[in-house]
Design brief:
Helices cover 23% and strands 31% of the residues. It is of the alpha/beta class and 186 residues long. Helix 1 crosses helix 2. The site of inosinic acid (IMP) has 17 residues, from strand 5, helix 3 and strand 8.
């Protein structure tokens, strides 16, 4: 049987812990943005699972929109060069924008997004991320809502991929070393 579970060496954050934390984040965001026009901007594709859970714990009216970026580099390392593959459908002018990210690693992607969205004059702009690999930061960025700080390990699941696979794992896991060793994937 070809399951993806067999490739997982370690579960770093289990399903229950994620659910509990995402619920807390939703409650906090609902309280903080009460009475404002909130727009969630999710960064494809890694953040879609987090977005779908988070938005169902946000009890105030809000809109969602998507952006896709690519960063050139090795599969598990990003470079400083970021490109927009898909832009937002809706204007952010006069909206309170909350960027929804799966993980902040070097900070390159986020710094770039903040810069280009800021130029469009939103009322405010903040960041919510499920995971933060703080020790990997090379570009300083302010992250307002953090689900979990994690160590410097490459993780998959709950939206995060390795070579576009493993996004459907319901938890955050670390793959067996031989999976990475099998070379470039995707
Ligand atoms: P940054 O620009 O270096 O902060 O990288 C952010 C992007 O790199 C994330 O949105 C992910 O797509 C990817 N990334 C960084 N670390 C991981 C990881 O541990 N697993 C899966 N993707 C990752
Ligand atoms: Mg991403």
């Amino acid at each position: 049987m070809n399951t993806i579970e067999k490739d997982v060496a370690e579960i770093l954050i289990d399903q229950e812990s994620i659910a509990k934390r995402v619920e807390e984040m939703g409650a906090q965001i609902s309280a903080d943005y009460e009475g404002t026009e909130l727009m969630l901007v999710a960064v494809l594709k890694g953040s879609v699972v987090f977005l779908s859970d988070l938005m169902r714990h946000i009890t105030i009216p809000h809109t969602i929109d998507f952006m896709a970026t690519s960063s050139y580099g090795h599969v598990t390392e990003s470079t400083g060069v970021v490109k927009i593959l898909k832009d937002l459908d809706m204007p952010v002018t006069d909206k309170h924008v909350l960027i929804v990210e799966d993980i902040i690693d070097t900070g390159n992607t986020l710094a770039y997004l903040l810069r280009i969205l800021q130029e469009r004059n939103p009322k405010s702009i903040r960041v919510a991320t499920l995971l933060d690999k703080k020790e990997r930061r090379t570009v300083p960025v302010v992250v307002d809502y953090v689900g979990f700080e994690i160590p410097n390990k490459f993780v998959v699941g709950y939206g995060l991929d390795f070579g576009e696979i493993y996004r459907n794992l319901p938890y955050i896991g670390v793959l067996k070393p031989e999976i990475y060793a099998s070379g470039l994937s995707g």
